[in-house]
Design a protein that fits this description.
mainly beta, five-stranded mixed beta sheet, 1 helix, 5 strands, 42% strand, globular
Length: 76
């Protein structure tokens, strides 16, 4: 499922912490920001996992592990 579909019911004031699973066993932390500021291609990443929301310094943070796929080009 796409990230934009997973986050549609999360309030704009809540924060998202997004980590990308690369092709190997390593993960790359994208960052943490309010949902209202998350825009662009990251919304089309596939969600691999989500954890329960946590409270950090008075903010609700939703953590997501995402992956993106290369577009397959047509064979010529």
């Amino acid at each position: 499922m796409k990230l934009k579909t997973e986050i549609r019911h999360i309030p704009d004031t809540d924060w998202l912490a997004i980590t990308v699973q690369s092709t190997d066993h390593y993960q790359n932390y994208i960052g943490r920001a309010p949902k209202a500021l998350i825009k662009g291609p990251v919304l089309n990443y596939d969600v691999l996992g989500a954890s329960a929301p946590i409270q950090v310094n008075g903010y609700t943070v939703h953590r997501f592990l995402v992956s993106w796929r290369y577009k397959e080009t047509a064979k010529k």
